[in-house]
UniProtKB/TrEMBL annotation:
It comes from the Bacteria. Residues 55-67 have a biased composition (Basic and acidic residues). It comes from Psychrobacillus vulpis. GO terms for molecular function: carboxypeptidase activity. Residues 134-260 form the D-alanyl-D-alanine carboxypeptidase-like core domain. InterPro entries: DD-CPase-like, VanY-like_core_dom, VanY/YodJ_core_dom, Zn_M74/Hedgehog-like. GO terms for biological process: proteolysis. PANTHER family: D-ALANYL-D-ALANINE CARBOXYPEPTIDASE (PTHR34385), PEPTIDOGLYCAN L-ALANYL-D-GLUTAMATE ENDOPEPTIDASE CWLK (PTHR34385:SF1). Residues 68-89 have a biased composition (Acidic residues). This is D-alanyl-D-alanine carboxypeptidase family protein. Residues 52-89 are annotated as: Disordered. Keywords: Carboxypeptidase, Hydrolase, Membrane, Protease, Transmembrane, Transmembrane helix. The chain crosses the membrane at residues 16-38.
Length: 280
C-alpha cells in the first residue's frame, strides 16, 4: 500500500510541470487570439499595436521627406494604403519628386485664378515667363520695411525675382551637390519657383544671416513681426507651418508672396493658404 501511494505521489509530481506549462501555453494563445481580435483580426495591425513594426516611425519620416501637393490621402484609415509610399519611393528619380504633378513639359501660358498668378508644383510657369521683380511688390515691401524699422527691425529682402535660367543653375548645383531627391526637398525645379513670378520676397533681418531661409526666422521677433503684419502691405506667408501637404513645400517663415492688400488680408484672416482660399 505504502509503496503504491508513494508511486502515485511520484507520478502526480511528474505530471505537474506538464499541467503548468500546458496552462501557460493555453493562456498565451488565448491572449494572442484576444489581441488579434481587438485589432480587427488584422495581423499587421496587431503587430504594429505592439510597437514592433517599422511603420511606427514613418509619419515623422514623411513629414521630413515628402513635399506632396494636393494629395489628400486618408492614409491612417487604411493600413494597406500606408505601405504604398515606401514601395513608390525608389521611383522618384523616374517620374519626378512627390508633389510635382507629372508635368514633363512646362506650359505655354501661366495659370491665373481669379486674376491671381499661380506658381506651384501643380501649376508651373512657362520657361519664357520673365517679368523681373514686380515694382508694385517692391514698393509694398519698402513700405513694410520702413514700418518694421520703427519697431526696431531692419528687414532685408535677400532673394526676390529669380529668372528661369538662374533657377536652373541653382537647382542643377543643388542636384550635383546633394542628389536630385535631396535637392527636391528644399529647392524648386526650374519653372516651379514662385520667385520666377517677381512677386515672391524672401525676408530676413539685417545682421542675422544665420536665420536666412531657416525655420528659426519664424521664432525671432522680426520674423513674428513680419508674420503678423505682412498682410497689411499685401504679402502672405506662402508656405505656413503644417500646410506642407497643401502647398507642396515645407514651412518657410521667410518666404512671402505679394498678392495685394485686400487678398492678403482675407487670406491672413482666414488663416489659410492660397490653395485653400481658391479651393485649388
Ligand atoms: Zn523663397
Amino acid at each position: 500500500m505504502q509503496s503504491r501511494q508513494s508511486f502515485l505521489k511520484k507520478k502526480n509530481q511528474k505530471k505537474w510541470p506538464y499541467i503548468v506549462s500546458g496552462c501557460i501555453a493555453a493562456a498565451i494563445i488565448a491572449l494572442i487570439v484576444t489581441w488579434i481580435g481587438l485589432n480587427d483580426w488584422n495581423i499587421d495591425k496587431s503587430i504594429a499595436a505592439l510597437g514592433l513594426s517599422n511603420d511606427k516611425g514613418k509619419p515623422t519620416t514623411e513629414e521630413k521627406v515628402d513635399e506632396p501637393a494636393m494629395e489628400e490621402n486618408d492614409e491612417k484609415e487604411q493600413p494597406a494604403a500606408e505601405e504604398e509610399p515606401v514601395v513608390e519611393e525608389p521611383e522618384i528619380d523616374l517620374s519626378g519628386a512627390k508633389g510635382y504633378v507629372g508635368h514633363e513639359t512646362l506650359p505655354e501660358e501661366p495659370k491665373y485664378v481669379e486674376g491671381v498668378l499661380i506658381a506651384s508644383k501643380t501649376y508651373p510657369l512657362p520657361s519664357t515667363y520673365a517679368p523681373g521683380e514686380s515694382k508694385e511688390a517692391r514698393a509694398a515691401y519698402e513700405e513694410m520695411a520702413a514700418e518694421a524699422k520703427l519697431s526696431g527691425y531692419n528687414l532685408v529682402a535677400f532673394s526676390t525675382y529669380r529668372s528661369f535660367d538662374y533657377q536652373t543653375q541653382l537647382y542643377n548645383k543643388y542636384v550635383s551637390n546633394d542628389g536630385q531627391e535631396e535637392a527636391d526637398r528644399y529647392s524648386a525645379r526650374p519653372g516651379y519657383s514662385e520667385h520666377q513670378t517677381g512677386l515672391a520676397f524672401d525676408i530676413g533681418e539685417q545682421h542675422f544671416e544665420q536665420h536666412f531661409a531657416r525655420e528659426s526666422f519664424g521664432e525671432t521677433e522680426a520674423g513674428k513681426w513680419v508674420a503678423a503684419n505682412a498682410h497689411k502691405y499685401g504679402f502672405i506667408m506662402r508656405y505656413p507651418n503644417g500646410k506642407e501637404k497643401i502647398t507642396g513645400y515645407m514651412y518657410e517663415p521667410w518666404h512671402f508672396r505679394y498678392v495685394g492688400e485686400q487678398l492678403a488680408t482675407e487670406v491672413y484672416k482666414a488663416g489659410t493658404t492660397l490653395e485653400e482660399y481658391f479651393e485649388m
